[in-house]
Amino acid sequence: MDEGLTLLEPDLDGADDEDADPARDAPPTDLDAQSLRDEFVDAFNARDLDALLSVVAAEVECPDRHAVGARALAQEVTDIWHRAPGVILTRAFLDDAPCAVAWLPDDDGCWSRAALVCLDAEPQDEPRPLISLVELPDDADALDRAEADDPTGEELEEGIGWVEWEVGEEPAARARR
Question: By the 8 A CB rule, do 101 and 95 touch?
Fold first, then answer.
């Protein structure tokens, strides 16, 4: 071999690849998906759009809006907050997959399930996975089957606070059984 040239063996197993990041390239675990769902729910209920957008990918898919991107999701979320100021999300599971259930107070003062919010996460060029899909499927059976927490505690207090702020009255909503 000539002086100054070095023969490099190909790295077939990827062990020496400096750009490989197994944590970034691995599919999200259930724990990742649950923590992303929890952050999404907390931000939604706090009406904190910046926090909500911090857990979604820039190119998040929003099939219900027939759009892609964080800007489309932000518009949809703010529209929901204005149309239904009392709406809150609670944590749920559908067929063992983390999701959320949207609740609205009805005329009887009870909370009723309004929508199922399905989320999907994928690895990103970020230090952690981000939500890549936010979908509200039109599936009443799935909404009924979702194992969801009833709106109680902090979620309930925040939801009532937003209704009072938006509408000027304090509803006495309770979970429908």
Answer: no
